[in-house]
Queue: 2 jobs
Job 1
Amino acid sequence: MRQRSLTIVTSLLTAGALTLTACGSRDSKGSDSGETTVVIGVDAPLTGQNSATGLGIQYGVQIAVDDANKNNTVPGVTFEVKALDDKAIPANGQQNATSLVSDKKVLGVIGPLNSGVATSMQQVFDTAGLVQISPSNTAPELTQGKNWQTSKKRPYKTYFRTATTDALQGGFAADYTYKTLKKRKVYVVDDKQTYGAGLAKLFTANFTKAGGKVVGTDHVNTGDKDFATLVTKVKNSGADLLYYGGQYDESQILTKQLKAAGAKIPLFGGDGMFSDTYIKTAGASAEGDLVTSVGVPVTTLPAAKDFVATYKEKKYPGDYGTYGGYAYDAATAIIKAVGKVVKDGKVPSDARQQIVDAVQNSDFDGVSGHVSFDQYGDTTNKQLTVYQVKSGKWEPVKSGTYNPAS
């Protein structure tokens, strides 16, 4: 997905003649303890719009950090989490990024949730040489440049993601709509944001290429709650499916009003809709609706068993099933990179740059699957899943990959 943020930090202690390296510090136990605190910061919407998925990211990172400390993954280092709230607003994300960069204790960042927020943060981190890994951004241009469809060029070497892109997600949804659902007439709506508009455009291109017809298009604003005019247009268009590019905040209301008006057609969206909150708000109106999301269901992966159990045991808020596992793996990539760079608790002066290089060479099995990155900083895990609301729950109906050339 998406368009809305995370962080990594170290606690600073100055005491008399204690000499510290440029990044990282000895903690309050004193220099004799040999302990250095490295804080992984999280930037995501923790309140307001998209907060259910934002909180899932925050606590996915928290579990990774707790596991690293419990297992003494990096000898001489204690990890902590600092979570910052961007409220799904790009300007807030940029302010958070600037704040994190200015703190020399910060060695890396996880987030943001939303692609639109990411565009405001990338250059800030890149200028500082500070690694950033998003567990949820899906806009292709973030890693492959504005002209990614004709000439891929990586704009920022410090930016990575553990979620696959909309270039695959849009096509995967279009393919499922045409071939499996056998829908031929679709109405397409988006929220005019980087993620939503981009996803809708890619769905449209792939659906029409397959032979389908887009019978109408429209846009909504984030925060809208009255969709009466749009619902009438969709109902009168004769569409047999509504494709929505955007977040659950608006689509959960749109589908309810659509069904109430007598348009008994499914609403299909991307991972921005994949949240239990969508079903709770839409109620029975959500039945039959669909989404695509990155990866395969986290609950089906043996490696994620302990992660899911811990999340539930701790009673953490938010939706862990959307990006929690990808946040855990993003944090783990940074933790492993710190382990390669920080030896015996000693943080070198060029730690940030060394960590960027170490993340680029990540190669391990995480809770969401294998974790590694290609030359653009994109995940090599291209798995996607279609989910449908059945009996009030998101149920996986198809997992696989999508080849744009097919």
Job 2
Amino acid sequence: MISKTHILFSLILVSSFSLNAIHVLCEAPAPAPAPAPAPAPASASESQFISCGSPPDGETDFYGRKWTSDSKFLTSSDNTKSATTDYQDPALPSKIPYMTTRIINSATSYKFSVSSSKRLLLRFQFYPSVYGSLENTKAVFDVTANGLTLLRHFSPFITALALTQAYIIREYSLVPVPSGSLTITFTPSSKHENFFAFVNSIEIIPMEDTFKPADLIGFNGQSIDVQGSSLQIMHRVNVGGGYIPPINDSGLARTWLDDSPYLLNSAFGASFFNGIFLGVAIEAENNVTVQHTSDVPEFVAPLSVYRTARSMGPDPKVNEKYNLTWVFQVDANFTYLVRFHFCELQSTKANERSFEIFINNQTAEETADVIQWAGSIGKPIYKDYATHINDKEGDEILWVALHPNREQHPQYYDAILNGLEIFKVNDTHGNLAGPNIMPSKMLLNADAAARSFMPNLL
């Protein structure tokens, strides 16, 4: 069981700059250009990368990806305009598509022709910089896709300030659209005058459906089938490995973050911090071949996710006393699908490494054995579990923890994890929107102070 003494933590966000000088803290710096794009899926020709507010001929980004102008997808250009910003935050991975945007002053829609048989990976990027004389605090708006509410009263400025990030990505997996027509509508908030909407980029990528029924934790014998549901991708981490940029993903242009900031009371390079166990990062040896299979094809996750992992380490006495724990912020009143990516990189036999999986203090799996599940070393596998987050104090947090299974008497008292994804499932009202993440009072004070000292920049 996860001890309550192990799940107490505090999060203090400190910022000495305004949003326009905020750097991404939980993502690694943009990598240097070098690797070629990963092999594209069969449906790559249908993928659409739209740079909003860009020139009619489109643009090419830092990685060589071609972005199309958004103008031809607007159902009406009335009450919209393109805009640019002069400030390029050092945390931006590329100048394109962040430096241009589409400003929207009244409800406006984009219409796209899409695959009628496949799920759609829909991704927005928002860079809440200063565009002309517009006040970025007045960018508050709703976003819907074919009637599904994705964002409500969304403020990119407040969200970025709270997360201390320079830009915000919102990503969704939508159910197939039989009509082959996807309508995305941006509606500025009507609560106050002069509110507006904006968006820097829209990506639409057909994707295979990898979602199957998953056990609902805490409800014995119950499961949820999310194949008929749309999802929001809340978190995606490469456990034990580093930051994976979109260009190195396996065809879906996803970003995989380093898991270190999500470890409970994490401290880089340490196995312990204030008595909290952090485990150790491991990587496949040269004699271990890691490769995709028919059950886990390329589009599920790139091989770089499965070539690295985090284990508890070689000391069984230490491992028995601790849980390896990650902490994620989520929205209350939603059901979540938690996907665990596994690939054994050291053990070769069943019951060499057997462990328990906990989600929010509840047992998701009593006897997790990657070799037993996958059949051999270097063979990837993933497991899905579902959990519901209630609307109670402290319920905006989702905990994932691993602990050795002593009852199975494994050869090694240890656990392993390679990657983790957390998906929010749409509710019964066709809604995926959660509240804005509010910055701490300390952050607001720091931002106000920064504004007074940097008038030329702001």
